[in-house]
Each structure stands twice: as structure tokens, then as C-alpha cells.
């Protein structure tokens, strides 16, 4: 009996060893499996909440144009500054053009008149323009726009032939001076001419300018829009106690004889 048990045990042990040997053989012959890098799924080291990093919103079209214009303006300013700083002779023409642009008065009245002709009066913010004082001329006549109202009646004490710029008129004391034509006030107080004292310059729709000098009081302000006949100020008084004022007309840089378009008496 014991001999049979020993035989069974030996068979079982032999079978177990055979099975273990087969398993080891399979492990040696099986290929090694290597995971590719792209197949790896690794968790990030930190967590980013969605929407925490917001992209900068793009600039609007109007803002783009504004920035471009601003940059161009700065570039032009720097170029002009360099031209004036260097003093190179080849830039002399540009320098003279820039100087002339700054020294020349902007034609406010002419631009306003063009705007009104093209688009109409802007919500009646400005008074209705009138080139001449009421009752001076027939406004239906074609020549009416060339007629100037009399600032103040009187006698010519010094004519255009004597100074080549304007006329001096003697009138009554404390007489009011009125605008000869409608336009914009572009100068108040003085025009670098001591002979005419306190003065007012009015720019008209046709590009001309009227100058009123030797004023005692001034009743208008800079950039006022005035009509023909609007009170500008009062005359000053001479040594004889009579009122006196200066009047001139300009077309660009050229003076016009006021006696050709106005009868002061």
C-alpha cells in the first residue's frame, strides 16, 4: 500500500515539475511588450480651470484707424522737427511752406459758407448770414454781395492814397462802429500795429477781411459769428474831441481801397 502511494506522489511531483518547466519555457520565448510614448496617458501636474486665461479682445475697426492716424501724425511731426532742426538747404522749400501754413489765418467764414451751401445750416445753431446791413442795398441785385455797409458815417481825414492800407474817418464822439459785412471775428485787441490801437478783424464769407481800428471799447469776442450791422465797438476821441476810427479791407495780403466800395459821407 505504501509503495503505491509513493508511486502516486512521484507521478504528481513529476507532473508538477513538467508543468512548471513548460511555464518557464513560455515566459522565455514570449516577446516583450513596450508601450509607445504616444500611448501613455499621463495626468497633468496642475489643473487649469477653463476660462481662467482669457484671450485679449481684438481692436475694433475704428480703434485701428485712430491708432494708425495717431502714429502717422507723430511720424510727420518728427520729420518736420528734424527738417527744422538740421537746417539743410534742400528742405528750405518745405520749411517755408510749413511757416506759411501756420502764419496764414484759417478761412473760417469761407468754410462755414461752403458747408452751408453743401449741407444746409446745422440745426439753425448759427444766425442767418447777412452780408450787408438792412436797407443799405437791394439784396435781389447780383452786385449786392460786393457791397459793404458803412461802419460809421463821417469824413475821411486820411485816405488810402496816403498810407496804402486803409482810411481814417472822423465822426461824432462815442459813435458806434458796425460790421461792414457778416463773418467771423478772428482778431480782438490788436494786430501788431501801434498806429491803429485796439482793433477788431472780421473774416467774411468771400475771403476778404475788414479791419476796425482806433476803438475805445470792443463789444465782440474772438470767433463770434456776426452779421452786417452788428455793433463792434465805439470810436476813440482825438485831441479836438471828435470821434475817429480806422477802417481797412484786405483780400489775402492785398489791401483794398475802402472808398471804392463804401461811401463814408
Keywords:
eleven-stranded antiparallel sheet; 5 helices; transmembrane; 11 strands; alpha+beta; 265 residues; M23 family metallopeptidase
List the topology elements:
Layout: H1 2-29, H2 61-86, H3 92-103, H4 108-119, E1 155-158, H5 160-163, E2 166-171, E3 176-178, E4 183-188, E5 200-204, E6 208-213, E7 215-218, E8 225-226, E9 231-237, E10 243-251, E11 254-256
CATH homolog superfamily: Glucose Permease (Domain IIA)
Main sheet characteristics: 11 strands, antiparallel
How many distinct beta strands? 11
Strand-residue proportion? 15-25%
The tally of structural domains comes to 1
Q: Can you identify the CATH class?
A: Mainly Beta
Could you report the average pLDDT, rounded to the nearest whole number?
A: 76
CATH architecture descriptor text: Distorted Sandwich
* Series of secondary-structure elements, N-terminal to C-terminal: HHHHEHEEEEEEEEEE
CATH topology: Glucose Permease (Domain IIA)
Termini Cα gap: 168 Å
Give the helix proportion (percent range). 25-40%
Your description of this structure?
- There is one protein chain.
- By secondary structure, the chain is of the alpha+beta class.
- It has one domain (80-265): Glucose Permease (Domain IIA).
- 31% of the residues lie in helices and 21% in strands.
- It is built from five helices and eleven strands.
- The protein has helices at residues 2-29, 61-86, 92-103, 108-119, 160-163, and strands at residues 155-158, 166-171, 176-178, 183-188, 200-204, 208-213, 215-218, 225-226, 231-237, 243-251, 254-256.
- A hairpin with a 5-residue loop joins strand 9 and strand 10.
- The longest helix has 28 residues, at 2-29.
- It starts with a helix and ends in a 9-residue tail after the last strand.
- Residues 2-29 form a coiled coil.
- The chain crosses the membrane at residues 66-84.
Amino acid at each position: 500500500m505504501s509503495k503505491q502511494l509513493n508511486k502516486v506522489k512521484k507521478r504528481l511531483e513529476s507532473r508538477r515539475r513538467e508543468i512548471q518547466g513548460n511555464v518557464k519555457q513560455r515566459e522565455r520565448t514570449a516577446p516583450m511588450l513596450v508601450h509607445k510614448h504616444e500611448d501613455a496617458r499621463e495626468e497633468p501636474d496642475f489643473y487649469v480651470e477653463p476660462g481662467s486665461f482669457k484671450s485679449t479682445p481684438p481692436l475694433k475697426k475704428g480703434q485701428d484707424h485712430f491708432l494708425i492716424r495717431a502714429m502717422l501724425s507723430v511720424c510727420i511731426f518728427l520729420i518736420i522737427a528734424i527738417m527744422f532742426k538740421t537746417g539743410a538747404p534742400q528742405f528750405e522749400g518745405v520749411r517755408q511752406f510749413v511757416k506759411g501754413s501756420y502764419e496764414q489765418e484759417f478761412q473760417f467764414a469761407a468754410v462755414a459758407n461752403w458747408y452751408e451751401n453743401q449741407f444746409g445750416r446745422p440745426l439753425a445753431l448759427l444766425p442767418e448770414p447777412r452780408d450787408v446791413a438792412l436797407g443799405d442795398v437791394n439784396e435781389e441785385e447780383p452786385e449786392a454781395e460786393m457791397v459793404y455797409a458803412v461802419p460809421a458815417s463821417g469824413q475821411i481825414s486820411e485816405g488810402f492814397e496816403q498810407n496804402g492800407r486803409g482810411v481814417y474817418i472822423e465822426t461824432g464822439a462815442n459813435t458806434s462802429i458796425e460790421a461792414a459785412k457778416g463773418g467771423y471775428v478772428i482778431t480782438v485787441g490788436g494786430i501788431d500795429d501801434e498806429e491803429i490801437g485796439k482793433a477788431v478783424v472780421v473774416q467774411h464769407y468771400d475771403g476778404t477781411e475788414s479791419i476796425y481800428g482806433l476803438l475805445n471799447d470792443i463789444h465782440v469776442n474772438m470767433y463770434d459769428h456776426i452779421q452786417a450791422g452788428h455793433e463792434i465797438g465805439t470810436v476813440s476821441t482825438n485831441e479836438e474831441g471828435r470821434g475817429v476810427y480806422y477802417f481797412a479791407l484786405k483780400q489775402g495780403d492785398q489791401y483794398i481801397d475802402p472808398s471804392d466800395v463804401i461811401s463814408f459821407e
